[in-house]
Amino acid sequence: MSTAPVPRSAPRAHGGHRQSGGAAGAMIVRVRLFAILREHAGIDHIELRLEPRATVADALAALSHMPPIGELLSRIPVHMAVNRDYAAPDTVLSADDELALIPPLSGG
User: Fold this and answer.
1) Ranges in the chain, pLDDT < 70
2) What pLDDT, in 10s, does the model give residues 60-82?
3) What is the torsional sign of CA 97, 20, 50, 70?
4) Strands, DSSP E only, in 43-108?
5) Do 81 and 91 form a contact (C-beta atoms < 8 A)?
């Protein structure tokens, strides 16, 4: 499945980025970032415009083109959750879903 281009846009008041433009029939999925992903991105979420019936893997592919998130995702494993339920890469997304990306945590 293809995704719309992932342009950078000005931060919104809540600390996220929203894609501009869009194709008819596209859906918006909110991607929440945690821990090191949020720290490196400097935002807490990104709103992606994806094709209908896109999967978690499609969303990750779109994010792979967004520095610095894409570079980080290529180096660290993440757990994924859709609407607070753990999800696999082949999980199909729907409009207005929330995809959480949770990297490994460490500390003591």
Assistant:
1) 1-24, 106-108
2) 999 999 988 999 999 999 999 99
3) negative
4) 45-50, 79-82, 85-87, 98-102
5) no
Find the helix or strand (DSSP H, E) in which 22 lies: none
Taking the model in full, what pTM does it have? 0.77
* Amino acid 25: pLDDT: 81
Place of tokens 């592919």: 61
Nearest CA to 52 out of 1, 106, 10 is that of 1
Question: How high is the pLDDT of residue 106?
Answer: 63
For β-strands 79-82 and 98-102, DSSP reports them as antiparallel
Instruction: Identify the helix (H) or strand (E) that includes residue 61.
Output: helix 56-63
Q: Could you tell me the CA-to-CA distances from 2 to 44, 50, 80 in Å, in that order? A: 25, 8, 20
CB 19 within 8 Å of CB 9: yes
- Take residue 61 and report the two structure tokens written for it: 């592919």
| The two three-digit tokens of residue 24, written as one number | 């008819």
